[in-house]
Amino acid sequence: MADKEAQTIRDERIAFILLAVVLAPVLSVAIVGGYGFIVWMSQLILGPPTG
């Protein structure tokens, strides 16, 4: 039983490292980059913002 608990803890640590170190930064860059791309394309099509 202790071996199964140790395996579960190891799996949870690997999942946390994957989420915190890999997935969160990749998603952040993708979201910010996607938003910037949308703004850039909309300004190419519609023109610069007027104020």
Automatic annotation (TrEMBL):
Protein name: Periplasmic nitrate reductase, NapE protein
Provenance organism: Roseibium salinum
Lineage of the species this protein comes from: Bacteria, Pseudomonadati, Pseudomonadota, Alphaproteobacteria, Hyphomicrobiales
Keyword annotations of the record: Membrane, Transmembrane, Transmembrane helix
Stored InterPro entries: NapE_TorE, Nitrate_reductase_NapE
Top-level taxon: Bacteria
Gene: napE
Record-annotated membrane-spanning stretches: 14-41
